[in-house]
Amino acid sequence: MDEPMTAADTGLDAPVPLLAPADSLTDATATSLTVAAAPLANAGGPEPQRQESPAPTAAAFTEQRMLRPAVPAPAGGWRRALHRLTAGTVNLGPSPAEAAAARLVERIRRPIEGSRRIAVVSRKGGVGKTSVTLLLGHALAAHRGDRVVALDGNPDAGSLGHRVVRENAATVTDLLAATDRLAGYSEVRRFTSQAPSRLEVVASDDDPAVTRALDDGDYAAAIAALDRHYNLLLCDTGTGILDAATQGILAEADQLVVVLSPSLDGARVAAATLDWLDAHGYAALVAGAVAALNSVRAGRSDVDLDQVAGHFAARCRAVVAVPFDAQLAAGGNTDLARLRPATRDAYLRLAAAVADGFAQPPQRRSTASSHPRVVPARERTFA
């Protein structure tokens, strides 16, 4: 029979059989065995404390936890037809295109703190800047719960006010004349026209009796008055970036949408606009800008649009291409429902790209409240 292992084999001081009876161990031997075994027992560190789970309460009964997620019904196409034919028992859910549109709407609904002012600019006429302002406003207003207003910031008889059904003849000049009396939203509403999308528009002054255009102080005061009642303010600027009106709007802007046509001339002018803005203290606005590559003519262009988009993607936060749409080319009252699906989707993508910028802090260089009240043109007297 094998001899019992001794303490020498285990590293202990005295020879002790490994399986010795408990009553044969001396106090010293027992202590030695305990000391030797301690490192083995604690090799994995202290034994973790058991965490007691909190007792369930009525707070556990939420829709997210207790209700099975509902599959949205398809909105159109053969999936919708099948859903209706089977009285809803067969529900394949939204199509990939519908799911993509839903994701865009979720981005458009990004919450904001306070208000945001978005300037839509172009130094070249005929690129569809007013159409972009209008349809961007429709897309934002139709899918958000807050108030959205578009201000015609073209002091030279802008046309934004004529792109919606006019509910009144009021203009920005009338709004300025009443700024001291605008106690609430209902008073401001008298100077706007509202489209079915919920977008409101403040028209520019096209009165032939007016002999002096509004300037930077006027538009700063108008923006300040609207800012107290609207969460989103879009400004359709004129084509002269050096004009006082455009300068005033740029100083109040948090975000920028640069509109260009898919032509060599249009792209060059838009790039020069960014050059000027970079050189005059608006680099942060440029970096956070969205470039709208807006097709205003039908047919194929000889310009390499990928090269054009790449240039602006390197300088701006996003680039969105908007296809030609005859509905917009007419220049009349237009809403999202009248557009071709591809154009409607493009404006959803443009609105989503703009809304992505709501996560960043405002970039305005000044606040409208810092400007003194400027007497509107109709109240001025000239020598």
Order of helices and strands: HHHHHEHEHHEEHEHEHHEHEHH
CATH class of the largest domain: Alpha Beta
Shape: globular
CATH architecture of the largest domain: 3-Layer(aba) Sandwich
Helical content class: 25-40%
SS content category: alpha/beta
What is the overall pLDDT average? 81
**Main sheet summary:** 8 strands, mixed
Q: Percent of residues in beta strands?
A: 5-15%
User: What is the strand tally?
Assistant: 8
Strands in their spatial order, largest beta sheet: 3-4-2-5-1-6-7-8
How many domains is the backbone divided into? Answer: 2
CATH homologous superfamily caption of the largest domain: P-loop containing nucleotide triphosphate hydrolases
Number of helices: 15
In whole angstroms, the N-to-C terminal distance is 129 Å
Low-confidence spans:
10-38, 367-383
CATH topology (level 3) name of the largest domain: Rossmann fold
Question: Radius of gyration in whole Å, from Cα?
Answer: 34 Å
3D structure, described in words:
There is one protein chain. With 383 residues, the protein is α/β, with parallel strands linked by helices. It folds into 2 domains: 74-108, no CATH class; 114-379, 3-Layer(aba) Sandwich (Rossmann fold). It has helices spanning 7-10, 27-41, 63-66, 77-85, 96-108, 129-143, 172-177, 185-189, 216-227, 244-252, 264-279, 283-287, 305-315, 326-329, 341-356; strands at 116-121, 148-153, 193-194, 200-202, 232-237, 255-260, 290-294, 318-322. α13 (305-315) links the parallel β7 and β8 (318-322). The chain starts with 6 loop residues before the first helix and ends in a 27-residue tail after the last helix.
